[in-house]
UniProtKB/TrEMBL annotation:
Keyword Lyase: yes
Keyword vocabulary terms for this entry: Cobalamin biosynthesis, Lyase, Pyridoxal phosphate
Family matches, as InterPro entries: Aminotransferase_I/II_large, CobD, NHTrfase_class1_PyrdxlP-BS, PyrdxlP-dep_Trfase, PyrdxlP-dep_Trfase_major, PyrdxlP-dep_Trfase_small
Reaction equation(s) it catalyzes: O-phospho-L-threonine + H(+) = (R)-1-aminopropan-2-yl phosphate + CO2
A single MF term (Gene Ontology): threonine-phosphate decarboxylase activity
Protein's name in the database: threonine-phosphate decarboxylase
Domain Aminotransferase class I/classII large, residue spans: 68-338
Pathway connected to this protein: Cofactor biosynthesis; adenosylcobalamin biosynthesis
Amino acid sequence: MASSSFLCNKVDNIMQNLDAPQHGGRLHAAADLFSIPLAQWLDLSTGINPYSWQPPDIPLSVWQRLPDSYAELESAAHHYYGAEVLSIPGSQWAIQTLPTLFPQARTWIPREGYEEHRYWWQKLGHEIRLYDDLPSLPLQKHDVVVVINPNNPTTNRYERDELIALADTLNTLQGTLLVDEAFMDATPEVSVFAGNSTLPANLIVLRSMGKFFGLAGMRLGFIYCNEHLQQTLRSVLGPWAVSHPAAYVASLALQDTHWQQQNRLRLAQSSIKLKAILLEHFDQHSISCDTLFCTLQLESNKAAQLYNHCAQQGVLLRLFEQWGKIRIGLTTKPGLQRLQSALQCWNS
Ligand SMILES: Cc1ncc(COP(=O)(O)O)c(C=O)c1O
């Protein structure tokens, strides 16, 4: 692991010129492209919970004062995750920062998945290896393996035991396992944090307040990692990287176990309803659903056609043209009705 001065030299010297990944939620661009006013869109292009946790009024003192400690937030997070974590301004921050802290390494990235991982490791000059499935990896000394669990957008999942065994194997090679659990909150029982065993020292886990809690705009996430890396990250973060309002709101949301339980049930029902609508139009083998979205795997240009078809009716989906995939976020009852009518005249 490198110091932060190494970080700066490395960033200056090695940053590669790559095209930044595209994301869902680009409503302004869609409004311009399809000439439909912003307010008329149904945005299903993200995997953000449509029933987000409702923040209370934030006391003026929280806006006025700098956060002088994150102890309360991190204690609530410890209790919620069952592991000691460091608060960060969104898990994206860690995705961008971690590759600056490792010496040049071969980095294994899922062939299909949240593209920011590949982008940042590659941008920082690491050697990228794309994988389809974990068990087949020919690992070498110092390798870094990135697993997105569950994967966005494929919905693939790996078992906790498999990931811990992988971390152990990597440990013998002085390698690192980075598990992105941004979409894990609805199924905490299968998180790498579940169970009582001590976690391997070379394991890094990312969590997000954006997806399950539906608070993506708050820019708050957490990282689990060993003490040495935590110290480095703290010095890169500086004193107030997480805003006081974000820390205040997140502490409350993390302690709201009643909402969390209700929300897990509601999301499960919502996912079943979305899948039922998709089954009316698509082959069951082309549909895979996770707790916050469903993904369609379609023949070559069908994905782009479906995206355009729905967009022309003001329903924004997430197109992954390079993989022939469409991701559709969960939505409320009126949202489902609108999706249903948009799909009515879809000729698959
Ligand atoms: C798999 C995955 N990880 C991490 C992130 C970043 O989330 P955030 O920075 O809001 O925590 C995203 C955002 O879409 C994601 O899809």
